[in-house]
Amino acid sequence: MPGEAAAIGYLVSTMGTAGRCDMLGIMRAMIIDRFGGPEELRLADVQRPEPGAGEVLVRIAFAGVNPADWKIREGWLKDFVPFRLPHILGFDGAGVVAALGKGVDGLRIGDRVVTASNQGKGAWGTYAEYAVSDLDRVVPLADSIDFRAAAALPTAGITSWEALFNVGGLRAGQQVLVNGGAGGMGSWCVQLAKMAGAAVAATCGPANVEYVRSLGADLPIDYRAQDVAAVVRRWAPEGVDLIVDTVGQGTLLQSVELVKPGGILACIGTLIAGEPQPDAARAGARGVCMMPTMSSFERQGAQLRALVEALQAGRIRAPAIEVLPLAAAADAQRRIQAGHVRGKIVLDVAGAASA
Ligand SMILES: NC(=O)c1ccc[n+]([C@@H]2O[C@H](COP(=O)([O-])OP(=O)(O)OC[C@H]3O[C@@H](n4cnc5c(N)ncnc54)[C@H](OP(=O)(O)O)[C@@H]3O)[C@@H](O)[C@H]2O)c1
Questions:
Q1: Domains (ranges, CATH) in the chain?
Q2: How many Cα atoms within 13 Å fall on the side-chain side of residue 309?
Q3: Per-residue pLDDT tens for 82-95?
């Protein structure tokens, strides 16, 4: 792909020998000086971070955009995570290894990698030419994997893995319903559930029915035109084994009734205050295990390695991906905040750096 070739060419040609900014340890980044709306995002030249012991500096080609990015930008997590301002957003990135911290083995400078950044610990993220990650969350990529596809993987893929397998214990032959099958999480969730040998139903809007089917869903359900609960009851009269609800916000309040006794309802944490919740007492009465679900920092590395392996083996494939320039990060976040992006948006960081 021409974009990918240009990105790799740029990364390789500038690494180490670099222009003035690189030599001064300066990098281009999309920063926020304070928490607030999308207008707070601005391009700036900032000091490149250095990898500490056990850390890896990655030169970012593409950065994935997640709903968590705009939520952090708004300040929703500022009382829980030690961010320092100016802050650089971004959990997900793909590119090449630029430097290794003390004690890091197993990677070489120039290796193609995907990473879940250290932003969860308050460090700067991936909307920048360089980002630092713990070695555990830097995973080598085969040449066959496009940086764009890789940048779409970490947060959405990891959380899908957590919901389906760590929380849901999904096994071959089971039935799973994914609420929100067309989004970043949904696109990986549907594919991973099929990979595990489950039968998959997934909700989506009318424009995404064929997309969700193309991901492998046995039963796409158009939540605007169809009665979701009635369709699921016909498909799984005794109830499904697992529901992964990636949307929340009261969009599937009947979910408790659609899971079989002994089954699991995994509700992905949206951080949205006061959103209507499924009835926990009713879940208890029916023997349904209702599990608030979020990505687990300790498991992210192992999950990312398993996801990359599946991607490289062709067991899952890239979702729909829209590439926007790094300079359009605010638009990307507005689009995601509106709640109807198909698949993923990734930001072209290397292109911004060479512009
Ligand atoms: N706590 C954690 O560790 C963690 C980690 C990852 C994600 N999350 C959270 O999980 C949520 C999902 O993340 P994401 O990356 O998948 O978001 P996303 O990509 O922005 O999800 C957008 C998708 O939601 C679908 N959607 C919207 N309303 C729907 C409805 N009523 N029914 C069914 N589908 C609907 C849209 O499909 P249509 O256009 O077809 O409606 C769209 O494709 C976010 O709130 C995110 O913050 C939490």
A1: 2-152+318-354 (3.90.180.10), 155-293 (3.40.50.720)
A2: 7
A3: 999 999 999 999 99
